[in-house]
Amino acid sequence: xxxxxxxxxxxxxxxxxxxxxxxxxxxxxxxxxxxxxxxxxxxxxxxxxxxxxxxxxxxxxxxxxxxxxxxxxxxxxxxxxxxxxxxxxxxxxxxxxxxxxxxxxxxxxxxxxxxxxxxxxxxxxxxxxxxxxxxxxxxxxxxxxxxxxxxxxxxxxxxxxxxxxxxxxxxxxxxxxxxxxxxxxxxxxxxxxxxxxxxxxxxxxxxxxxxxxxxxxxxxxxxxxxxxxxxxxxxxxxxxxxxxxxxxxxxxxxxxxxxxxxxxxxxxxxxxxxxxxxxxxxxxxxxxxxxxxxxxxxxxxxxxxxxxxxxxxxxxxx
Length: 318
Prior knowledge:
about 60% strand, mainly beta, globular, ten-stranded antiparallel sheet, single chain, about 0% helix
């Protein structure tokens, strides 16, 4: 649901819908949201679209008067466009791009932290006031049906996979690495990891959060949990990560690919440009306590962002 009810300035909120065709021939991410500048003089709703195959991006701006939402559930409207956890309806047209159609979501796997003390993926950090950016996961993975017309070419998402998350606050972090995919050979697998610079009491620290969902089980990892993370950037576009808790180890290798430029918030204004690849490669391995391989898989349909001075995010907690 909308978290920013009553906000007038220095605020953004956005939802990230990723959709992948069943054969991987089409990958689309759609990001609806609102942006309120630091002084409150610029207030807008927006919808961004990124084509994961061509890396083409489009940014559609709407007056705030064309944004509305339900106070009881995740349901919002921007112009003639509608978004919820069950359906999106797009009617986007400008001088360079057209995206229209309806896609529905089925069999959503909602985030379950496994503990009342950690009500969402941010855990108790969710309740810390004045944080720069908050993060939430709406659906770890789900099935899709429906079609979009993208620049007069029909794209069928029926039988494909989707994912939904969101961010809200005043600004995105100064540096972060984010990766996500649920397009593995194992159809019940989904993975997300975010590592970022977190402002804290006049200073900052490197924090992380994420999950691996496999075989109807969710493996949680975060700064606030009993996990340790080692992150190494071996080349300009290759990341190697080890995540360890008392029972399991997750090994990750990700490599960036073709990127498109998205607009991102800075003190509420959508003035920052960030690169995102949604056809990066990702390899995962899950080991048990004895180091025995439980599961491994890979994909070349991965969202990957490496933003700001991301090399400072290299961690070695093991």
